[in-house]
Amino acid sequence: MKVLVINAGSSSLKYQLYDMTNESVLASGRVERIGMDSSIVTHEASGKSEVRSVSEILEHTTAVRRVLEMLVDPHNGVIDVISEIDAVGHRVVHGGEAFKQSVLVTQDVKLEIRNLFDLAPLHNPAHMMGISAVDTNLPEVPQVVVFDTAFHQTMPRESYLYAIPMVLYRRHKVRRYGFHGTSHAYVSVQAAAYLQQPLESLKMVSCHIGNGASCTAILDGKSFDTSMGMTPLEGLMMGTRSGDLDPAVVPFVMNKEDLSVSEVNSMLNKHSGLQAISGLSSDMREITEAMQEGDKHAQLAFDMYAYRVRKYIGAYAAAMNGIDTLVFTAGVGENSSILRKAVCEGLTFLGIELDEERNNERRKDVRIISTDASRVKVLVVPTNEELLIARDTFEIVQQQLQSP
Ligand code: AMP
Fold first, then answer.
1. CATH of the domain at 294
2. Which mutation among 284, 334, 384 tests ligand 1's pocket best, with the greatest number of atoms within 8 A of CB?
3. Does 291 lie in the same domain as 233?
4. Residue 316 C-alpha to ligand 1 middle, in angstroms?
5. 142 C-alpha to ligand 1 centroid (Å)
6. Phi/psi of residue 226, each to 5°?
7. Is the pTM of this model over 0.85?
8. Does residue 159 belong to any structural domain of this protein?
9. Which of 332, 360, 386 to mutate to test the pocket of ligand 1 (most atoms within 8 A of CB)?
């Protein structure tokens, strides 16, 4: 079975075509600047070099058509005919309380995703455009939606409720949902398999730390708590997001600086985090380089970022009455040995002991970076959200085909 994985944004669309017989990626690419006259399609067939073209792509239906053209292109394509695509899996950011797992797209599912537009106004409408574009281009092909929030639907009420009037939860579903669920789910399964232990037996904290960042407490194989909230703004300090702050700061700053709701929203989401503290960049590589050259602001940004991660690991160890597995993933978690060291240095009381040499190794596979004596196993697990989307899509469509 061949599965096309799509991550549709408002002006971009990323794709990967998987052959599920061996879970290999046949081709991948992206369409950028959708809606503009000079849209860019970048396509890479496995084993070949990347090709790039510029053309006018005004909406998602045309973007998906261009992707399909690339996939069957005589020079850079990887399939002979479009009908070789058996299923399409979409990443959807917000599944609210309606979706606790990945599901086949039906009219009801589309309606539910539309009902969630309020909770994810920047993301869900774009995902719907992706789904409609596939409906138009591949009307016979089953589609599956995989939600960033679904993994966290197992959180207990004490984790997901805010201590604000309950009427806001009942009326508007104001609660914590958590994000990066596909990544946390994927790396937890990979880590347990690597350790050759049942996932259900582990008390794990997974740290998905990249440009966006979140920590999740995983107990009995399920999300017990996670650091992002109703939106991805809560929790850790991120590239451009503030993470946790006293909510009273918002009206105070709005008042003092005469800011509108959208201005304060933009400040907290786009002009805070590493970017704001360093005054330099939201990119951890640049922060680290500047810090190593003696830049004090970059040092502070790095220290604050690491401190927050450490604090959440400690909190989640308390929440689960212990921790035996700590996982680092995503851009920073997978690549920055110096950040991992800074986080773990203050956690020796929990039985976390990094092996300097293992931590400094530059590898792209799953690996342990703690010492043999460390009570907590610390792992680096490269995330692969697209593969999990492809797997869920494959399983759901297989079940559908087998059901009478
Ligand atoms: P992601 O959002 O998962 O793609 O992660 C992006 C973040 O990972 C950016 O802040 C990058 O600077 C960071 N990153 C990628 N490679 C490295 C590296 N070698 N060292 C430090 N940070 C890195």
1. 3.30.420.40
2. 284
3. yes
4. 24
5. 35
6. -150, 155
7. yes
8. no
9. 332
* Cα radius of gyration rounded to whole Å, the chain: 22
Cite the active site residues. Answer: 148
**What is the chain's length?**
404
The tokens for 175 are 């609660």
Residue 19 lies in a domain: yes
Ligand 1 center to residue 101 CA distance, Å? 29
Domain extent, residue 106, equals 2-147
- Ordered strands of the 85-92 beta sheet: 51-57, 36-45, 24-32, 13-19, 2-8, 85-92, 143-147, 103-104
Q: Do 122 and 56 share a domain, yes or no?
A: yes
233 lines ligand 1 (CB under 6 A): no
**137 and 225 together in one domain:** no
Same domain, yes or no: 113 and 251: no
How far apart (Å, rounded) are the C-alpha atoms in residues 147 and 152? Answer: 10
Average pLDDT over residues 46-65: 95
**What are the tens digits of pLDDT across the range 185-228?**
999 999 999 999 999 999 999 999 999 999 999 999 999 999 99
CA of 301 to the centre of ligand 1 (A): 15
pLDDT of residue 176: 98
- CB of 283 shorter than 6 A to ligand 1: yes
Flag whether 312 is in a domain.
yes
Number of structural domains, the chain?
2
Same domain membership, residue 250 and residue 141: no
Could you tell me if the CB of 330 is within 6 A of ligand 1? Answer: yes
